[in-house]
Design goal:
single chain, alpha+beta, Jelly Rolls, four-stranded antiparallel beta sheet, 5 helices, 8 strands, 41% helix, globular
Length: 169
């Protein structure tokens, strides 16, 4: 059982997360009541590239590294492990899988002991299907987040591809 301070802190973290921001407090309580708390040891994998994703995760405590492991699916091998990102409290992952049912596109590993709020895919979809207002807010948040990520990738690509040439007169 959670103590009241942890419960209040976790509720605030979920309410500020990218996926659930702008929800009313009762909506956040509904989300929290549908979640399971998961504790992960340092080095523990939460998602594995190429395997099905089972829900949405919100980091409550700790840091999670996102990576492409040396061993890829289908017997392929990368020259080394590739670090993609490190996320901390309030950040979400697993959002692709709750939308498209495809396997995880990267692996997620706890850098230190971590506590996560896990919303199973079936619960996520049930809440969205039964609450139009919540569904609209959550899908708008997800869309805005994913579009922002795409715009960031476009800028990264521009940095690699654009040449700085003087204009011809």
């Amino acid at each position: 059982m959670l103590n009241p301070n942890d419960l209040r802190r976790y509720r605030e973290t979920i309410a500020k997360s990218v996926v659930f921001e702008q929800l009313e407090s009762g909506d956040v309580d509904l989300i929290l009541s549908s979640c399971r708390l998961l504790d992960t040891a340092a080095g523990g994998f939460i998602l594995t590239e190429g395997l099905p994703s089972d829900g949405l995760y919100i980091i409550l405590e700790g840091q999670i590294e996102f990576l492409l492991p040396e061993h890829a699916g289908g017997g392929l091998r990368r020259p080394s492990r590739i670090r993609l990102n490190v996320l901390g409290p309030g950040r979400c992952f697993g959002e692709y899988g709750v939308i498209d049912d495809r396997p995880a596109s990267a692996s997620a590993q706890a850098l230190a002991p971590a506590r996560l709020c896990f919303l199973p895919k079936a619960e996520f979809r049930r809440i969205i299907a039964q609450n139009d207002r919540i569904g609209k807010i959550v899908f708008f948040n997800l869309l805005r987040f994913l579009v922002g990520r795409l715009r960031g990738k476009d800028k990264e690509l521009d940095l690699v591809l654009l040449e700085d040439r003087p204009r011809e007169s």
